[in-house]
Amino acid sequence: MHSIERLIPLLEKAPLVSFSGFSFRVIADRWRADPLSAIGAFERGGRFNAPRMFPILYSADSQLTALLEVEALFVDAEDRLRGAPRNPDLILTLDCTLLRVLDLTVANLYADLGTSYEELVSNTPSRFLSNARNQETPTQQLGQACFRSGRISALKVPSAVNPKGYCLDILIESLVVGERVALLDHNGLLQAEVTGWIPKPI
What we know:
The chain has helices at 4-11, 39-44, 63-69, 110-113, 117-121, 127-132, 138-149, and strands at residues 17-28, 57-60, 73-75, 81-83, 89-103, 154-158, 166-170, 180-183, 193-195. With 202 residues, it is of the alpha+beta class. The strands form 2 sheets. Strands 1, 2, 5, 6, 7, 8 and 9 form a 7-stranded mixed β-sheet that branches. The radius of gyration is 17 Å and the shape is globular.
């Protein structure tokens, strides 16, 4: 991965796509009062953000991918899906309208960004060890460059745990007018929505 300073001007020219549809998110039931909060990822960090740098709303293409990503499910040595004992979780459906998505599920930009599929899904170096040393992983550097560029609302990236799936990682503070993320619940029990307020670039 290139340095943040080198990535930012490259990202200013990178092609972006729109996304309109559903993505899926797993949260602990104790957070049901604020289901679209990204405070957990902000405080602890994630694959594309270092702790306390900026928030990302992590979601996935399917309930299966979302459960695998939070380690509520895993694949055992015999290639069977197994569940892990956990406190209660909520599986959320997010209705998304995003206009500025960096699509890294295709390899077109890998060479320009100095990265690869293997680097995007790798758990090496460990983000926990790197962050404890006040360092960022390559994917966290990419996430920071996307956030600082000001022109990217979400990253569509390969899932690290489901080769057939992808993650939609939303830069919740970067949404522009016309973009929104809303919780789908026809029962009306859970209601939450985040709408973009930043004016669209001319």
